[in-house]
Design goal:
mainly alpha
Length: about 190
């Protein structure tokens, strides 16, 4: 792993941790609206994550290109279109931020320390909780905006998010469970 990649990975890990902590404190304080600072940190971290899609496409990083594109296209659409929309409640925005940040908080340690089997298991297990939360709230936010937008370009894009997050999520979830089982059984074989 090169120095720039390592620096970006540590930056993303720290940044997503800050997003998670700020989101939890925001909720506990009773304040509903995410601050501009929280949203800027979120965008910065998401752009680091989205840059990995380009690395996968260039063959510099292993990964599922279609899945990476879909995840980060959806996140950026949520960030710029649905999260700031008046039809989407601040509770939904906070749930999306929490799902994204927790997912990445538990993914980056495995990226930074790939030789640690426990980190791989945690990385694969975390989305069993965060994926339904994130995909569900993203689909709900997309649906809320879809129902009121008059923008004919946004309608199919938002409809696609609902379809992919609900339909695709239902299809992908068993595979996610399989990865956790395989990771745990691989850890046991190593002993």
């Amino acid at each position: 792993m090169g120095a720039i990649t390592t620096t970006l990975n540590w930056t993303a890990l720290i940044g997503w941790t800050v997003v998670a902590v700020m989101t939890v404190f925001l909720h506990l304080s009773g304040d509903d609206t995410p601050s501009g600072e929280l949203m800027k940190i979120t965008l910065f971290c998401e752009l680091i994550c989205a840059s990995e899609t380009l690395k996968i496409a260039a063959g510099l990083l292993r990964g599922d290109l279609a899945l990476s594109f879909t995840v980060h296209y959806t996140r950026l659409l949520m960030y710029f279109v649905t999260m700031p929309h008046s039809e989407v409640s601040t509770t939904v925005v906070k749930m999306i931020l929490l799902a994204w940040s927790l997912t990445e908080m538990f993914r980056y340690p495995m990226v930074l320390f790939p030789e640690v089997p426990l980190l791989r298991t945690i990385r694969y297990a975390t989305p069993l909780i965060t994926f339904p939360l994130g995909a569900g709230t993203e689909a709900y936010a997309a649906y809320k905006v879809l129902m009121v937008t008059e923008n004919m370009l946004l309608k199919p894009v938002l409809g696609l998010v609902v379809l992919i997050n609900v339909g695709g999520g239902t299809l992908w979830y068993p595979g996610m469970i399989h990865k956790v089982v395989r990771s745990v059984s691989g850890k046991k074989k190593a002993k």
